[in-house]
Specification:
Elements lengths: L1 E5 L2 H11 L3 E5 L5 E2 L7 E2 L5 E2 L2 E2 L4 H13 L2 E4 L5 H16 L8 E3 L7 H8 L7 H28 L10 H17 L4 E10 L5 E9 L2 E2 L7 H13 L2 E13 L7 H12 L3 H13 L15 H15 L42 H15 L5 E12 L5 E11 L36 E13 L8 H11 L7 H10 L3 E4 L2 E4 L1 H13 L6 H15 L5 H21 L2 H11 L1 H4 L20 E6 L2 E6 L8 E3 L11 E5 L6 E7 L2 E6 L9 E4 L12 H8 L3 E5 L6 E7 L2 E6 L2 E4 L3 H6 L2 H16 L11 E7 L6 E7 L2 E5 L4 E3 L11 H25 L9 H21 L3
Parallel strand pairs: 1-2, 1-7, 7-8
Antiparallel strand pairs: 3-6, 4-5, 9-10, 9-15, 10-11, 10-14, 12-13, 12-15, 13-14, 16-17, 18-19, 19-20, 21-22, 22-23, 23-24, 25-26, 26-27, 27-28, 29-30, 30-31, 31-32
Helix pairs in contact: 3-5, 5-15, 5-16, 6-14, 8-11, 8-12, 9-11
């Protein structure tokens, strides 16, 4: 019997069907060992020796693997065909050796780019040894990430309160977001005018043209002001125009190559609204179902047999005309920096398996992959781009119209790549390229139907979306496609960025950390340095460089630099940051006044300070002047508290402020020894100015008395606490759904709410079986046909098929879960269940204690041996 080890139970189940009874296929559930998060896990003093530790949640899987290895003739390591997969195989082999569980037949490595029967059987017939250069590259990356994180993060904690962590690639990605935020803030809108006319062709068709020549001079973007634009408008309205030139230019548009990891993440973001993490989860399910090839790749080529299958499909479905099917197959090469192209692009494994109805996320993503791959082998689209120049009778004013016509659509009949957002003020000639123009010839007369002069302002560059940020990182050669999703997730989890309307906004913490790293560790957040390090790591994976030499060279520069900064006093670090950030924190006022002058006392100077909860700006006259403002606010500097108005009862001034825990409202300034009344602003309430005074008063007057409970005579109150809006009555509580409920709920509804809360608590706080709230209906289980649903539980959402319940992974959204992912979760939970049941019979032997003392004593040595077995399953 051969033991085959893969990563996931779904993959194990599929492969087991292909291999038959002479193989036993088990899943490791990903990595089984990692560097423990503590000092010394990587020891530079011992030539970067690494102390690995078995993950706590992998004990069961490893125990099952060890037992199966004892029965097996040999072990086949069939983890994913990339660096991480090679690393998982290496960890498994090292662990089996440590536990002396490696069969006499030893271990071999097989890889396959798709989970199909033919690919798996071919791989089994061609085993190999582990790829040591790939393992070395993994070790180098893991050590670098650990050394940067565990060396640089403590510097941040001590010198920059409120900062959480730094990372080799994470910090560079954050810098991209922060720099874009700076560009947006530095942008100063500039006015410009356009004059456009709806023209009537001789045959009666209308088309749009733009003023391009004024008084014989070609116009630039900012050449027109209000007066000139309206004068030009009047001149165009009065004059007729004659076509002077018609330029027709043939244009071809080529199809995009098949998907890589990063381009799949980009297109799924643009077209489907998926974030990178969700895209990879869905793609993982498609791969494990055998529907697509391996989804972590930066290669754009596909196998020869797949290319021929695509061409045959195109010929059958669309015809073999040269306008549809090129004479020769298209061969693609990657343009991304540091692309390794070790694997095929992401493609369907069977092109006859056409996309079905796009009912779920898996089908939507599969359709995207199928269409893109097939379109990549189709003919180019042929278009005709036309430019028409029209002049008035004296030749002083000229209009220009542009448009294009599709002659043969080629690949466009199936797929067209989505475009990234561009600034709206771009004055490009091809802005109206999609417009259709009438057939015109030189000398044709055209009249104006409607002419408009419109005012515009230049716009800042758009904030990064996931798609554009991933694209930019790939262009710069930062990180690896398989890491992009986790990098973006980390930035959000650390509260360095926030995502609004699918756009990344830099938070105060993120801006401060970036400024600190730019000021004190500039080299390590440079784009070229990070990309260069990736190139060196690629050399290691190719076997052309030593990973230990790479680590030694990096540490020789990095360690002294961190030690130097660690020795500096926090006040010196703050002073250096104050100087470095002065253009951002204290921009020029434009009236020659001092931008650092305190707006409250008009005597002190403002400077950057750091406290327990982070950075802020304060007056130098403290404690006489207690003016402060957040480190960052919209548009840079802030003018301090916003006055909302006077309290209708106390007449005290109510102000809107920002603090370390967010925005809040405050009444008055408080008396000596007493703090003023304050109230945080809930997320579902917007308070921006005096028009929101009523909301501020309501929040400051909480808790609100709802009334007296008819049974107990105790008061019921409504308020907002740490966990949201709630009701309180005699030491018991009930949750409310929104802030509005706090001010609107009446006595009857409050009594019912409290009664339901009490009943739920009495029953253990969870819904009774059979009446759990369904969050989503996923469909029928592919094997049992039973309905699979996502339900709301006491400890969060879980998926159930009526027999097995499986908790959703941390951070996943119930609405995003697909049927394929749910089946994987249920299979993993079901696979773990028998182990628990198997232990129960042993527990029933307790009554044996009634036996004579000798028998009881005889059992004691066995009890002592049980703990002795633990080290065999514990990490080395």
């Amino acid at each position: 019997m051969q033991l085959v080890i893969v990563e996931s139970p779904a993959k194990a189940k599929t492969i087991n069907k292909y291999l038959g009874p002479s193989y036993e296929v088990l899943a490791s559930f990903g990595h089984v060992r990692d560097l423990p998060p503590r000092d010394g896990s990587v020891n530079p003093e011992a030539d970067f020796a690494m102390a690995w530790e078995v993950s706590g949640d992998r004990a069961k899987q490893l125990s099952a693997i060890r037992e199966a290895a004892k029965r097996a003739d040999s072990v086949i390591l069939a983890t994913d065909p990339d660096r991480e997969g090679e690393a998982i195989s290496w960890h498994l082999l090292e662990w089996l050796k440590e536990k002396r569980a490696l069969p006499k037949g030893g271990a071999s490595r097989v890889t396959f780019n798709e989970i199909t029967k033919s690919a798996v059987t071919r791989a089994m017939a061609a085993p190999r040894d582990l790829d040591q250069p790939l393992i070395d590259a993994y070790l180098a990356r893991r050590a670098l990430d650990y050394l940067v994180g565990f060396t640089l993060s403590p510097v941040l904690w001590r010198k920059l309160p409120g900062a959480k962590s730094a990372g080799r690639v994470q910090s560079v990605a954050l810098r991209l977001v922060v720099e874009r935020e700076r560009d947006i803030e530095a942008h100063r809108p500039r006015e410009y005018w356009r004059v456009e006319a709806d023209m009537i062709a001789p045959a009666g068709q209308t088309f749009r043209a733009r003023l391009a020549v004024l008084d014989g001079k070609k116009l630039g973007q900012f050449d027109l002001d209000n007066v000139a634009a309206n004068a030009a408008r009047e001149a165009i309205e009065k004059n007729g125009f004659t076509v002077r030139t018609v330029e027709t230019k043939p244009v071809s548009r080529n199809p995009a190559p098949p998907f890589t990891t990063s381009t799949l993440q980009q297109e799924a973001s643009r077209r489907l609204g998926f974030n990178a993490s969700h895209t990879m989860r869905v793609a993982q399910g498609l791969y494990e179902d055998g529907r697509i090839t391996y989804m972590r790749t930066d290669g754009v080529q596909i196998a020869a047999e797949a290319m021929h299958a695509v061409r045959d499909l195109i010929a059958n479905d669309y015809g073999s005309s040269p306008d549809v099917l090129p004479e020769k197959p298209r061969i693609y090469t990657a343009k991304a920096k540091n692309a390794q192209e070790a694997h095929e692009a992401i493609r369907p494994t069977d092109f006859s398996r056409r996309p079905g109805r796009p009912d779920g996320d898996a089908e939507k993503l599969y359709a995207l992959i199928w269409n893109r791959t097939v379109a990549s082998q189709m003919a180019s689209a042929r278009l005709e781009r036309t430019s028409i120049d029209l002049y008035d009778d004296d030749g002083r004013h000229g209009l220009r119209a542009t448009g294009q016509v599709v002659i043969t659509p080629g690949f466009l009949v199936l797929y067209s790549e989505a475009r990234d957002e561009k600034p709206k003020d771009a004055m490009a000639d091809d802005e109206d390229d999609e417009a259709r123009l009438p057939r015109l010839a030189g000398g044709d007369r055209c009249a104006s139907k409607h002419v408009a002069a419109t005012q515009h302002f230049t716009e800042p560059p758009p904030r990064f979306s996931e798609a554009t940020l991933v694209k930019r990182m790939e262009e710069l050669g930062i990180g690896r496609p398989s890491t992009y999703a986790s990098i973006l997730t980390t930035l959000r989890d650390r509260a360095y960025v926030r995502v609004e309307k699918n756009r990344f906004h830099a938070e105060e913490k993120g801006r401060l950390v970036t400024a600190f790293l730019e000021r004190f560790f500039a080299r390590y957040v440079e784009y070229d340095f990070t990309a260069g390090l990736e190139t060196q790591l690629d050399d290691v994976s190719a076997g052309d460089a030593s990973y230990l030499e790479l680590l030694r060279a990096f540490w020789a520069d990095f360690q002294p630099k961190t030690a130097e900064i660690m020795e500096q006093r926090p006040s010196d670090v703050t002073a250096a940051l104050d100087e470095y950030l002065a253009p951002f924190l204290f921009p020029e006022t434009g009236d020659d006044s001092d931008p650092r002058l305190c707006p409250r006392c008009s005597a002190g100077r403002l400077s950057l300070k750091t406290g327990r909860f982070g950075a802020f700006v304060a007056c130098s006259n403290y404690p006489e002047c207690k003016y402060t403002r957040p480190f960052a606010s919209e548009g840079g500097a802030s003018e301090g508290p916003v006055e909302l108005g006077a309290d209708p009862v106390t007449a005290e001034l109510i102000t809107l402020r920002s603090g370390r825990f967010g925005r809040f409202v405050q009444r008055g300034e408080g008396s000596e020894g007493e703090k003023p009344a304050r109230a945080s602003i809930p997320k579902d309430v917007s308070i921006t100015g005096p028009e929101d005074l009523d909301w501020a008063v309501k929040l400051l007057n909480l808790p609100r008395t709802v009334g007296t409970h008819p049974e107990t005579g105790e008061t019921i109150t409504a308020s907002i606490g740490r966990y949201g809006p709630y009701l309180a009555h005699a030491g018991k509580y009930g949750r409310l759904t929104s802030t509005a409920d706090v001010f609107e709920i009446g006595m009857n509804a409050a009594v019912v709410n409290l009664a339901e809360a009490a009943a739920a608590k009495a029953s253990g706080g969870r819904p009774q079986r059979g009446v759990a709230t369904a969050l989503a209906e996923l469909g029928a289980h592919p094997e049992t046909g039973v309905a699979v649903r996502v339900l709301a539980g006491r400890y969060g959402a879980y998926v159930s098929d009526g027999t097995t319940n499986a908790t959703l992974p941390k951070g996943s959204e119930p609405a995003d879960l697909t049927l394929a992912e749910a089946v994987v979760l249920l299979a993993a939970r079901a696979a773990a269940a028998p182990a628990k049941k198997g232990k129960k019979p042993a527990a029933k032997k307790a009554p044996a204690k009634k036996a004579p003392a000798k028998k009881a004593a005889a059992k004691k040595p066995a009890a002592k041996k049980a703990p002795a077995k633990k080290p065999a399953a514990d990490p080395a």
